[in-house]
Specification:
Order of helices and strands: EEEEHEEE
Radius of gyration: 13 Å
Number of strands: 7
Strand content: 35-45%
Distance between the termini: 20 Å
Structural class: mainly beta
Bound molecules: zinc ion
Strand order of the largest sheet: 1-7-6-5
Number of helices: 1
């Protein structure tokens, strides 16, 4: 393990997404799955760290899904991450 400053960025919260230092990138949905009994799951490629993130659709539509890198993935196709300067 070799943590970088990028990894130490604090998790982005829903309240942060309109701040000027918050970066916005569109994410890509890799595939959509379904889990028993009726949960829709999206497999999302995080545009900041390129990890594949599994998110339940209900959690995306709620407060959003947190990626391990701190980015916040929201249901309308955007991911948000607070910039390094704010860390
Ligand atoms: Zn990420």
């Amino acid at each position: 393990m070799n943590p970088s400053r990028f990894d130490k960025a604090p998790p982005t919260r829903y309240a942060d997404i309109n701040k000027p230092e918050c970066e916005t990138l569109e994410y890509r949905v890799v595939r959509i799955g379904r889990e028993h009994p009726s949960s829709i799951t999206w497999y999302i490629e995080c545009p900041f760290c390129f990890a594949e993130v599994k998110a339940y659709l209900w959690s995306l539509c709620g407060g959003g899904k947190q990626c391990g890198c701190g980015a916040l993935l929201c249901s309308h196709g955007d991911a948000y991450k607070m910039g390094i300067l704010s860390a």
